[in-house]
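Supplementary Note 3. Input sequence used for the single-chain structure prediction.
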Amino acid sequence: MLNLDTFWNQRLMFPELTESQFKVLMYYAFGSNTEGIADILKCSQNAVKLSLKRIKENMKVDKLETVRIIYHSRIHTAMMAPDDFPKKYYEAMSNRQ
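The predicted structure, written as discrete structure tokens, is reproduced below.
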């Protein structure tokens, strides 16, 4: 069963993304293609492609592979850090924008 507290802590590591963008990123980072993500999220492939484009823009990177690396790096950090780290990271990053 999905642990919502863990999911929320992971979500906090991406203050620059909307919740729907985070979901697309999560599936993309684990290797799903646009067709698979669209099927899982019950949306069009064009919607997924647009989300991936906006994710790149919001994260200020040029390549989707970089987005995948950032995802795994941040999630790994959140898993290894103290319990309050994701919330503090979110607050710090939100204040920078």
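The two ends are 34 Å apart (CA to CA). The chain has six helices and no strands.
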